[in-house]
Amino acid sequence: MITLNINGKDMQVDADPSTPILWALRDNLNMTGTKFGCGAALCGACTVHLGGQPVRSCVTPISAAAGQKITTIEAMESDKVGKAVQAAWVKMDVPQCGYCQSGQIMSATALLRTNKAPSDADIDNAMSGNICRCGTYQRIRAAIKDAAKTIA
Ligand code: FES
Ligand code: FES
How far away, in angstroms, is 114 Cα from ligand 2 center? Predict the structure, then answer.
């Protein structure tokens, strides 16, 4: 049994320490907002924050989360920056199929926590690991800029 701090709450997970955070969330805790895409740190669909940094939960074992805070998409509606990002996503009508979007929002939120006025290059750099097969990149960039104005 491993204790994980997820979205501010300690939760018990009965899983091997090598289990990826993604599967502890989805299979053990029924938190399905974090998505499985590639399983190989290549697409960003599974992005969560670990200690405030965006990580690929499909390749990050729960043993690496000991003593650190995990934050998932489920916490974004009660997070000032996350809420602004989600509102901008709705305003700019960003999602198409939607599958990649929780990972996109987690990466965008991490960016805006450290950079409140990101340039196009900053956005491209921070979001380069998040793939969108529907090609919503232009709307993602516009939404990040819109959210930046909200939290400025
Ligand atoms: S599912 Fe983790 S990076 Fe693709
Ligand atoms: S909205 Fe479809 S993969 Fe990004």
Answer: 25
* 76-105 pLDDT, tens digit each: 999 999 999 999 999 999 999 999 999 999
Domain extents in the chain: 2-74, 76-151
Query: Over the stretch 37-47, which tens digit does the pLDDT of each residue have?
Result: 999 999 999 99
Whose alpha carbon is nearest atom 4 of ligand 2?
132
129 in contact with ligand 1, CB cutoff 6 A:
no
Q: Which residues contact 28 (CB under 8 A, 6 or more apart)?
A: 13, 14, 15, 19
Fold of 76-151: DNA polymerase; domain 1 (1.10.150)
pLDDT digits (tens, 9 = 90+) for 50-69: 999 999 999 999 999 989 99
* Residue 139 token pair: 């709307």
Are the beta carbons of 132 and 140 closer than 8 angstroms? Answer: yes
CATH (residue range 2-74): 3.10.20.30
Ligand 1 touching residue 46 (CB < 6 A): yes
47: which strand partners? Answer: 56
Relative to the CA of 95, which ligand 2 atom is closest?
1
